[in-house]
């Protein structure tokens, strides 16, 4: 995975240099370098690894050594006999201790291992979330650009229509009410244009949040894409999501860590046994008395510590650990229910978008024919200006709905892949081929590869 990731980043850099345009891969490369959420998840994983190493270190031999050098002066006063002496004192101490029986340390190591697994799953989740956010926000910008272009095109069409109606009114061919109707429609379209401009700025800011830089012009979506429905039964996809979704895996890791923490607290009621080896070398005794020679002492001991009473601290720590375990279980249930809903919604929405696109294409073709017939009818005086305006509005609405359905399909499909835990960087390469100026134009028939499909 890491090797593929490095190769992809290299490919992104080469692609950006060759094309000079901000396509999906360029935006993803910028997000990889700038996204703080992903960097935080990576740092969190490093914390988990360090905590696991610390827990393991508690079970390994502990070796300490100390040395002391001192200059001593001794005076004695015993009646008529007084003595005075100075001497150099040395003390050397080496100790080795090894835990023999300490269940709390063992379960703490197990707990830290599960926490590391949890953080690893959360990092994968953050990577997948970044891919999803890049795709979602990229096409949100494209959708906003399309809506603005359509609003401006409708505004220009309505403006030309107003000029024609005003000329026909001057010739007394049309009524003043027809002029008012076109003017009202032009005002409404102008308001829609302002709204579309605001939505475009908002969507661009959303993309900037990921990359840290304002997006320039983005490559457009191709027109010749054939959108296909997802295969398989919904329940099979739900089962896949439950087994491989990284967010749910992280919650299961949290539960296992909490269970081990309960074992840690329970183990604090048990005796602790350790072995200790000590070596002393000194020429000074109690109160730095001069021993006149170096004395070496070697000690081998087995220490047994039995907890008797700690003021209720151990019991309360046990209660806390059990409560945290229940919290982790409830969080897992919340995540599971949300995942089932998300998988179901993304699956059904993706397939519904395919049908929307097919129906939208037919609706747009019909609306275009209707508008053309209304233009001819107005020329021959068999329809009113209001009828033509309504036909033009219906055509732009149909075109707008068709564009929204296409973008909705891509977003829901990526959301579905995210839910079932199959979203990866390879999907970015595939979707990037759906753009007009992609390096390797894809054929008309496109289909995202989900990975291992249920039988």
Write the topology of this structure:
Blueprint: H1 2-19, H2 24-34, H3 36-57, E1 62-78, E2 81-101, H4 103-170, H5 176-211, H6 234-244, H7 246-267, E3 272-284, E4 290-305, H8 313-380, H9 385-420, H10 425-432
Antiparallel strand pairs: 1-2, 2-3, 3-4
Helix pairs in contact: 1-2, 2-4, 3-4, 4-5, 4-7, 4-9, 6-8, 7-8, 8-9
Helix residue percentage: 55-70%
CATH topology of the largest domain: Outer membrane efflux proteins (OEP)
- Major β-sheet profile: 4 strands, antiparallel
CATH architecture of the largest domain: Up-down Bundle
| N-to-C SSE string, H for helix and E for strand | HHHEEHHHHEEHHH
The computed structural class is alpha+beta
Report on this model:
Helix content is 66%, strand content 15%. The relative contact order is 0.14. The protein has a four-stranded antiparallel β-sheet with strand order 1-2-3-4, with no helix packed on it. The model is unreliable at 1-20, 438-446 and 451-455 (pLDDT under 50). α4 runs antiparallel to α5. It is built from ten helices and four strands. It has two domains: 2-59 and 105-138 and 206-269 and 312-432, Outer membrane efflux proteins (OEP) (Up-down Bundle); 61-75 and 82-101 and 271-306, Single Sheet (Outer membrane efflux proteins (OEP)). The protein has 455 residues and is an alpha+beta fold.
Concise structural overview:
Helices cover about 65% and strands about 15% of the residues. It is an alpha+beta fold and about 450 residues long.
